[in-house]
Amino acid sequence: MATYRKLKSGKWQARVSKDGKEFSIGTFRTKKEAEIEAGKVEERIYYGQTLNDRNMMFDEVVDEWLNEHKKSNVKESTFEQLEVIVRLHILPYFENKKIMRIRRSDINRWMKLYAEMKNEDGSDKYSYGSRVKYLSVMKSIFHYAVHELEVLEKNPTDRLTVPIQDSVAAHEKVKYYSLEELNKLLSFMKSYKHQRFEGYQLYYMLMYFLSETGLRISEALALKWTDIKDGKVTVERQTSRNNNNGLKLTTLKNTSSYRTIGLNEDLLHELKKFKLKQNEMILGMKSFHKSGDGIIFQNYMGNYLTPSTVRDMIQKYCEQAEVEYKGTHGFRHTHAVLLLESGASIKFVADRLGHKTIKTTSDTYLDITEKIEEDELKKFASYTSRKI
Fold first, then answer.
1. What CDD domains does UniProt report for this protein, alphabetically (predicted)?
2. What pLDDT, in 10s, does the model give residues 107-132?
3. Which residues of the chain does CATH 1.10.150.130 include?
4. Which residues of the chain have pLDDT under 70?
5. Are 60 and 112 in contact (CB under 8 A)?
6. Given 3.40.190.10, 2.60.40.1930, 3.40.50.2300, 1.10.443.10, which CATH number is that of 179-375?
7. Is the CATH code 1.10.150.130 the one for domain 52-171?
């Protein structure tokens, strides 16, 4: 039995059932028109014909994809990200088009437009990674239109990719601290004295921890002391923001992000000293509060740090230490690069970072690993060379 809904625009949306699922077949000026079209579609379904409403608008497909498909199949934070991408970067260009009239050339022009957008300083307004994500969302929408809604016979995004030269440029943008830069920054932080809470080296501990574990900043800020056991840390949550910009704890990016990794002796020693100092501050100062969650990297109010606050503070400390600021993610890249330079395998690095596949790791650090391999080969050649 078809159902009908009057939209805010005054038009009527018709939905029909097929194989136990409801699908929109389009919007119509009057309810009568919607009923007539729904009758035709239900007849085609009854006789086993393909449900194929070529008049369906792109924004209707997107609405179905988001609310009927994605909302129940992805975590809340992922759904929010998808909704933002669709609203800001896809619908403004395609919402008033019929799904059947969107051509491959239209999508290529859209991709080119984003590739050519620049900031005032001439840098790319949208990174390679962002554009790959936008295209991935488009592919998912059209896949849904072809295989679930059955309103298209062919997917115009099949085999479309962001140009390979952009991929090369993306590798060049991986920012990490050299071992010399990292040691200079950590030495500065070790000697830095907080005016109000001298001895509570929160940001030294956080930077050192990030560079020794490769955790994402959101993962590190969600850690509790109970997550460290037998010389290992278990990662099973992250910090995020809700619609009111309030902090909340959420699930991780994907199943591979849930991991338990080893901590070296030096880091464990520093963590032990940090915990003792934290407890000393809690017991000895009325203005220093205990975290109810047992947070490792708590502020003096006993609350979670926010990634934006951490970014601002680390940038300030980098300037004072005269070390180029590489972003909070720079510590994650640094950990990976130092591991590779020390001879660790790509597989070990991938597992430690919580990457879904080894390909993600090798693609991210391709240029860097090639340089490492080249340097090692030179060492081997020098060692085995024969004087003739």
1. INT_ICEBs1_C_like
2. 999 999 999 999 888 888 888 888 98
3. 52-171
4. 47-54, 164-173, 243-245, 376, 379-380, 385-388
5. no
6. 1.10.443.10
7. yes
H or E segment at 228? strand 228-229
pTM score of the predicted model: 0.64
Contact 220, 297 (CB under 8 A): yes
Delimit the CATH 1.10.443.10 region(s) of the chain. Answer: 179-375
pLDDT of the residue at 15: 86
Q: Which of 284, 306, 320, 316 has the alpha carbon at shortest distance from 200?
A: 284
d(CA 110, CA 113): 5
Place of tokens 């000293």: 273
Identify whether the C-beta of residue 200 lies closer than 8 Å to the C-beta of residue 281. Answer: yes
pLDDT tens for 190-219 read 999 877 888 899 999 999 999 999 999 999
Predicted local confidence at residue 275, as pLDDT: 97
DSSP-derived secondary structure letter, 68: I
DSSP 166-212: HHHHHHHT-----HHHHHHHHHHHHH---SSSTT--HHHHHHHHHHH
